[in-house]
Amino acid sequence: MIAFIVRRVLQSVFVLLIMSLLVFVGIYAIGNPVDILINPEATQAERAATIVAFGLDKPMWVQYGLFLQSAVAGDLGRSFAYSTPALTLIAQRLPATLELAVVAMLVSILLGVPLGLWAGLRRDGFAGRTIMSLSILGFSLPTFWVGLMLIMLFSVNLGWLPSSGRGQTVEWLGIPLSFLTLDGLKHLVLPALNLSLFNIALVIRLTHSGTQEAMLQDYVKFARAKGLASRRIIGVHVLKNILIPIVTVIALQFGALIAFAIVTESIFAWPGIGKLIIDSIRVLDRPVVVAYLLLTVTLFIVINLIVDVLYSVLDPRVRLSDARG
Amino acid sequence: MTEAPAVTPTDIETPFRRFLRSYLASKVAVFGLVLLALVLFAAIAGPFLAPQNPYDLKVLDVMDSRLAPGGVSGDGKMTFLLGSDEQGRDMVSAILYGIRTSVLVGVVSTAIALVIGLSLGLWAAYLGGRFDGFVMRLVDIQLSFPPILIALILLALTGPGLGKIIVALVAVKWAYYARSARSIALVERRKEYIEAATCLGLSTNRIIFKHLLPNCLTPLLAVTALQVASAITLEATLSFLGLGLPPTEPSLGLLISNGSQYLMSGKYWISVFPGVALLVVVVAINLVADQLRDVLNPRLQTQ
Fold it and tell me: What's the helix, strand, coil split of chain A in %, to 5?
């Protein structure tokens, strides 16, 4: 057990190192940082002094070592565009993204589970078929285009909902939140719906197949025989059993939501880290790009590590298959 | 033997005919196939079908910019069936060229990713041991990140470009093929024909590519078809974000992105119609792929 966790942790550190090397080589070595850091009118002596000051005269692996050293110390450089530390910039934008991702996750469960349940119970009915066809559409529609269509319909044509920004925010424990004000809530509806589209379809499919399987189980027959109302059978017994796998899958999707928020935030001008990275790539703000990529990769590695360890605790077969493979 | 009923050649159902019959059994799938044929026709014959070359600046007139669908150009020579964009470009022509680029990127990147993933997957399954462990660890690690993040990392390093987006899509997609090919090949390699080939003393590569490969291709077909659609969507998304294709090589994603700034002023056609085209491409491929998966899956066959 401990050997497994140690091996997984080591593997994660290794992946992170490879990623940091890739990002470092790609961003700092392919382009010449000297051109960006030094005023073109500087004299030759000034140039040489700056190169030494930034350590650019040292061999590549020493530079990488220094980069890693400051990265571990929490210094990933200053943004060229905002001239604040890149990490501070990301920390300021992170709550907006997390809020959007959490709300999108809730929306996908609150909409997906009832719809999937309905479709699963009325498999051959009109409603069931319609829901399942719509869920296929949810998988094949390009998310960014749906976002634009949502803006066109609800913001431009109907004028019901705003199409950009976070709206009014309220500070809670020093973190600005949108969902505590009516205005913020209105701003949240379209981006959250757009971001959760794929997951709604996913939850519908999972609930649909889960319901169909559960309805044939003995405990449902037994509950029926006991004379329970079908509302109670479905609402308590069936739901409790099918929710476990659904919640697991959706929790695993959380990282993907944060990654995909890049698209949604760009469409709805939501001031989170996804919009920040796209803006930074456009203006070649390298320190922010590096910081974002390293942080997101770390986040994913940590999520995967937690999931793997949890699985191995809950299901001993996972460890066995890992040892064999 | 002579009592056997006479079998005329037309009664014998070849595997291809059986495949065709079960494919055509679904009306939705036939619709998807027709749609896909139209899309491919548009992609191949696009430049001949388009009323104008939308990237030839000589034929564009800024005076014709942002005309509503059905609008007529200033010199009265041209009717913009689906309107025009901010540079006076006919949307029908722009969409036809866009479909061409999107399909090209999707097909080329899928083909390259398939060759790489398939080879690695087959080698991994056949050789086993350390090589297998290494390749599959790599696949596991890569699949634990969302595709859009990996493509974003690569494109942030390289910048936009036709070749670069294809490289990014290949880097994202090869792992899916490697995993599928390996799982299929693991079953196949235990069969007798592989044993026979080994006994004949054939070289490893010959066994893998002449004997194992053809038997693994059919189940991979449906996976591949689905991945083309997913590659096209991913390319459109990245181009929409300004990371994919440069404005000189417009794909559908870029057209949608160009139109998005005019959406607020009610000029919907610049974004909506390229989006509908993208949807048609993706849905056509998905419908065909779905049916292929059902038809080619031996577990679902009734006979």
Answer: 75, 0, 20
